[in-house]
Design brief:
It is built from 16 helices and 19 strands. By secondary structure, the protein is an alpha/beta fold. An 8-stranded parallel sheet has the order 14-11-10-19-18-17-16-15. It is globular, with a radius of gyration of 24 Å. The chain starts with a helix and ends in a 17-residue tail after the last helix. 52% of the residues are buried. The N terminus is likely disordered.
């Protein structure tokens, strides 16, 4: 009655985010029943495993600042938010989320699945849950069931720390942003003409001299072994596997400048701070080259618990084809010797990829049929493919000609273009099983800080993540752009800088 007396409209009842509004789109979402409300009395209940408790503590750290609730993590009791490990049809990364009046339960066969389920739960809560100060709520989770498993096992993002150096904390910030969208590989481009970024005890000048600059002549920097191990540890805590890359035989000027003996003429070139490519090459005919490669791979493999080591191999324009093939024939067995699986840019298919090797395709829609056929032939012969077409998912490409950051050699890549393609059907004559997944590279010629990284990644990165995770049948730009628009408020709450693409109906959250 009071509302009608004063003429004030009653406050609208809060409605929870629908189960199918998250990114990446779940494999299935069946709404039904009452929502669950997180309250002061909510507990986060985990089973006895250390991994489940770790995911529970992670969730609590996200929820506590904005809700103001204690949210104790406990192995006792019932109800509340429950994280449980149990065998089921989840695979290594899938999960099931059940929500109703009495609680939310996330079930997975492996800890990675619990973690991914927590990312879904985050997106089902209001965007204000991401803030660092107490917010009013209410904290409702829609009722129903989500069953979810990824389409591909490789859902990657590459960060180039060589053209411009990014600190450990800057890399961690990006890891957290990747984790929100269920990315599971962090490919670190650790060496290039402009800088060497990882300490190597047996060749110390690689880092101290080769890492002393960057594009434009800034101070550069490098990761100590402790720094790198901290990045690996932090990534693992977000269920991302670090894939380190040492690019060779080209893109090696920082190494060549550090050690004269790596050059065929024995003369070290000056450090390089420009952005040209294709002018440098290790000396393929010198035995010291392979001593160098062996030492670097041995030390890097020892620091890297993940399965993969990326050896680059692109744009080796200063290396003859014969030398390139000879080099890869020598180097791939070194990677295997230290227990790692080779990943290389797709030019590796012009040599003989090692058994089990993965080739990362970075060509364009318009790349020659001959080059695509070479990649397809390797795929039919057992080489797995990671798809990173430059005019689709290179996150450093400008959105439009007005974009102040980024490059445009692969064209302009607006949000729809980055999303609207099917990895499973992209390259002709490639068996579907050869495609292991997708990866979004971020080259850093023009990028100098976290804000630069973010405005190029958002809003394109979530779409690439969806291509890697969601069923092909769910792929639809018209439906996706609405879900993407709803993410803006969350990015704002997280302090993420982002590009307001006119292709997306941002609404109030886009301000």
């Amino acid at each position: 009655m009071a509302a009608s007396v004063t003429g004030a409209a009653p406050a609208p009842a809060a409605s929870p985010t629908p189960l199918d509004r998250v990114i990446p789109a779940p494999a299935s979402a069946d709404p039904g029943g009452s929502p669950y409300r997180i309250t002061r009395g909510t507990h986060i209940r985990v089973d006895g495993s250390r991994e489940a408790r770790g995911v529970g503590e992670y969730l609590a750290r996200i929820l506590r600042p904005s809700t103001g609730y204690r949210l104790p993590v406990t192995a006792q009791g019932a109800g509340g938010i429950r994280l449980r490990l149990a065998e089921g049809p989840f695979g290594a990364e899938g999960y099931r989320l059940d929500s109703g009046r009495h609680g939310v339960t996330i079930t997975a066969a492996r800890p990675a699945g619990l973690f991914h389920g927590v990312q879904t739960l985050r997106q089902l809560l209001p965007a204000a849950v991401e803030k660092e100060s107490v917010q009013p709520g209410p904290w409702l989770v829609a009722g129903g069931t989500i069953k979810d498993t990824p389409r591909y096992g490789w859902r990657g993002a590459m960060l180039d720390v060589s053209r411009h150096f990014f600190t450990v904390d800057q890399v961690k910030r990006y890891i957290d942003q990747l984790a929100l969208y269920k990315i599971n590989k962090l490919h670190l481009h650790l060496s290039d003409d402009q800088g060497w970024r990882i300490a190597v005890d047996s060749w110390p000048r690689l880092a101290t001299y080769g890492g002393s600059t960057e594009v434009g002549g800034g101070p550069g920097g490098y990761y100590t072994k402790a720094d790198y191990k901290e990045i690996v540890r932090y990534a693992a805590s977000r269920y991302l596997e670090v894939v380190p890359e040492i690019d060779m035989p080209g893109h090696t000027n920082a190494a060549l400048a550090s050690y004269a003996d790596l050059n065929c003429d024995g003369v070290a070139p000056p450090l390089y701070t420009g952005t040209e490519v294709g002018f440098s090459s290790l000396c393929v005919g010198k035995e010291i080259t392979y001593d160098f490669v062996d030492d670097v791979i041995r030390e890097l493999a020892a620091l890297t618990p993940g399965r993969y080591l990326h050896i680059g191999g692109d744009e080796a324009h200063s290396t003859s084809h014969e030398d390139y093939v000879a080099f890869m024939d020598r180097v791939q067995p070194i990677v295997a010797k230290y227990g790692k699986t080779v990943v290389g840019w797709h030019q590796l298919t012009g040599a003989t990829p090692a058994p089990g090797a993965l080739a990362q395709y970075w060509g364009l829609d318009g790349t020659s049929a001959e080059e695509k056929a070479q990649v397809a032939k390797a795929a039919r012969n057992g080489t797995g493919l990671i798809l990173s077409p430059a005019d689709r998912v290179y996150l450093d490409m400008k959105y439009t000609k007005e974009t102040p950051l980024g490059l445009s050699w692969a064209g302009y890549v607006e949000v729809r273009r980055s999303y609207d393609w099917d990895p499973g059907a992209y390259l002709p004559d490639v068996p579907g099983g050869a495609v292991r997944g997708v990866e979004a590279p971020m080259w850093s010629e023009t990028l100098e800080n976290s804000g630069h990284i973010e405005v190029m990644a958002f809003p394109r990165l979530p779409g690439v993540a969806e291509l890697g995770w969601s069923p092909a049948a769910s792929h639809d730009w018209e439906r996706y752009k609405g879900r993407l628009a709803a993410q803006a408020e969350r990015w704002n709450a997280l302090g993420i800088e982002w590009y307001r693409s006119p292709q997306v109906p941002w609404g109030a959250g886009g301000r």
